DNA sequence: TCGTTAATTAACGGATGCGTTAAACATAGA
DNA sequence: TCTATGTTTAACGCATCCGTTAATTAACGA
């Protein structure tokens, strides 16, 4: 399961190696070998991670000769952030906490009234 | 593996049922049965999802009689967002795209110079 | 054409994730 | 104390994830 876009994105971000790859790509495009270099895992493993990132839309890839260059595509990060934004009110310092409290109380009251 | 905090958080968010539970909790605390109601899965399955969310720190739980109430804890969402913020420059409209372009070019040049 | 380099695919193994049903546990209340 | 209700734990099955090594594909370049 987990075919919806957000799930695919979050799942892709749930691996530290993949987040490391994204961090590297934030500094500029890189080949598979370059991306693999900081990690103590095999090249095929990196290749799979890249496929996951590509499937999530987090990177795009191009080939030039025998090198395959990856570049960061931030769009999915924007989507994921947009989803989290819905909860920003719950932690944002500028948020009126009283309002949240009242809404919680209200929800509980409604529940008991059933 | 995947023991680091961010991985646990992202993994918890990678399931649509769990995101649905969080959305429900944003409206106020709820019991396990209440949380399970919108979903076509068994109660034990919901119970496991809650355990995952709790382990990620996304919810806190309290018991009152035989009911176990869950409440949203937004802290991990703040952490996850903070991580993504590092990439905001790549998609934010207010960002000077030329700067990003120059940094990419620069990185590629450095690589070729090796 | 042959060898080298870059990367992927194939085949496998072990761990984890997510669902189920059945059983157990915890508390309230007659 | 017995029963009903809410929730968790146990035990299982199946799919997916993540890693490995070996083999394969693709392109360059002497």
Architecture overview:
The structure is a homodimer of 114-residue chains. Chain A has seven helices and three strands; from the N terminus they run H-H-E-H-H-E-E-H-H-H. Chain A has 114 residues and is an alpha+beta fold. In chain A, strands 1-3-2 form a three-stranded antiparallel beta sheet. The mean pLDDT of chain A is 86. Chains A and B meet through helix 1, helix 2, helix 5, helix 6 and helix 7 of A and helix 1, helix 2, helix 5, helix 6 and helix 7 of B. Chain A binds a DNA duplex (30 and 30 nucleotides) through helix 4.
CATH superfamily of the largest domain in chain A, by name, is: Winged helix-like DNA-binding domain superfamily/Winged helix DNA-binding domain
What is the strand tally of chain A? Answer: 3
State the CATH topology of the largest domain in chain A. Answer: Arc Repressor Mutant, subunit A
Q: What is the residue-mean pLDDT of chain A, rounded to a whole number?
A: 86
Number of helices of chain A: 7
Count up the domains of chain A: 2
H/E series of chain A = HHEHHEEHHH
Radius of gyration of chain A: 20 Å
């Amino acid at each position: 399961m987990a075919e919806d876009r957000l799930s695919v994105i979050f799942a892709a971000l749930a691996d530290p190696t993949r987040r490391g790859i994204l961090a590297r790509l934030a500094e500029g495009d890189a080949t598979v070998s370059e991306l693999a270099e900081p990690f103590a895992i095999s090249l095929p493993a990196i290749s799979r991670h890249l496929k996951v990132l590509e499937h999530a839309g987090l990177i795009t890839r191009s080939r030039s000769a025998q090198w395959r260059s990856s570049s960061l595509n931030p769009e999915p990060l924007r989507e994921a952030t947009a989803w989290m934004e819905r909860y920003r009110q719950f932690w944002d310092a500028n948020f009126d906490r009283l309002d949240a409290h009242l809404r919680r109380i209200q929800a509980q009251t409604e529940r008991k009234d059933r």
